[in-house]
Write a structure and sequence with these properties.
By secondary structure, this protein is of the alpha+beta class. The protein is built from 4 helices and 15 strands. Bound molecules: 2-amino-4-trifluoromethylsulfanyl-butyric acid (MF3) and cobalt (II) ion (2 copies).
């Protein structure tokens, strides 16, 4: 097993791709409202990514193993959808919905991958708490990143925070190395044991993207072979950043201006 260490010129390209991916999440926010379909959101993002950013939307026609090609340019995962929700004109947002929008762009061959949660109208107290705790899980995971730390430190920080809130961590999907490949080594689990797993080194780039469920952790894959839902149909939330390991810690390549991060 070998994990890529990026060169300075590759890092520069990852910085550009990361910023552009983040800008799509900034752009789409004002379009997320009741009555809008997830297909509308896909079309708006696709046009922005292709026409304004001159990027490629990485999900479009993406294949993973035996799955059929992903048919859209972004993932939209509403309420009990855990991840990889397929935008559809039949999925019209209504007040109280929560959703994750996951953006991956390719610029100059390199990937930026990031997602955030959006709310429509006023979500339930539980939904708001799930969204907040999941974002805290992401940040706590990120804070573990520095040369010499282990992937297990990241997973443990996330799992501990989620379970303390009596939520559960999805096990079947994880963060991933990212560079000129969308999904590369290592697998970044969102649960684990401190001191275990791959040791981080300066120049590694990977995503952290915890999926946290309000109920039990178990999931089900729908017959479209992409959409992942909670088995108990309770809510799920996810936030994602692309991270670079730096000599003194980390750099969040997909940081948005709205984020005040310490
Ligand atoms: N962006 C997702 C991730 O964070 C992957 C989506 S693959 C797709 O890894 F084909 F569903 F788009
Ligand atoms: Co990812
Ligand atoms: Co993603």
């Amino acid at each position: 097993m070998s994990i890529r260490l990026l060169s300075e010129s590759e890092i520069d390209k990852m910085r550009v791709a990361g910023k552009l991916a983040a800008s799509v999440l900034d752009m789409i926010g004002s379009h997320v409202k009741a009555g809008v379909s997830t297909e509308d959101l896909d079309r708006i993002c696709h046009e922005y990514i292709v026409d304004d950013l001159s990027c490629i939307p990485a999900p479009l026609n993406y294949r993973n193993g035996n799955s059929p090609p992903f048919p859209k340019s972004i993932c939209t995962s509403v309420n009990h959808v855990v991840c990889h929700g397929i935008p559809s004109e039949r999925k019209v947002l209504k007040r109280g919905d929560i959703l994750n929008i996951d953006i991956t762009v390719i610029k100059d061959g390199f990937h930026g991958d990031t997602s955030k949660m959006f709310t429509v109208g006023e979500p339930s107290v539980l939904a708001k708490r799930l969204i907040a705790i999941t974002q805290e899980c992401l940040y706590l995971g990120i804070r573990q990143v520095r040369p010499g730390a282990r992937l297990g430190d990241i997973g443990h920080a996330i799992q501990t925070h989620a379970e303390r809130a009596r939520f559960s961590v999805v096990r079947e999907f994880c963060g991933h190395g990212i560079n000129d490949k969308f999904h590369d080594e290592p697998m970044v689990l969102h649960y684990g044991t401190p001191g275990q797993g791959v040791e981080l080194q300066e120049g590694m780039a990977f995503t952290i993207e915890p999926m946290i469920n309000a109920g039990r952790r178990h999931i089900k894959l729908l017959t479209d072979e992409w959409t992942v839902v909670t088995r108990d149909h309770r809510l799920s939330a996810q936030w994602e950043h692309t991270i670079l390991v730096m000599d003194n810690g980390y750099e969040i390549l997909t940081l948005r201006e709205e984020e005040t991060f310490h």
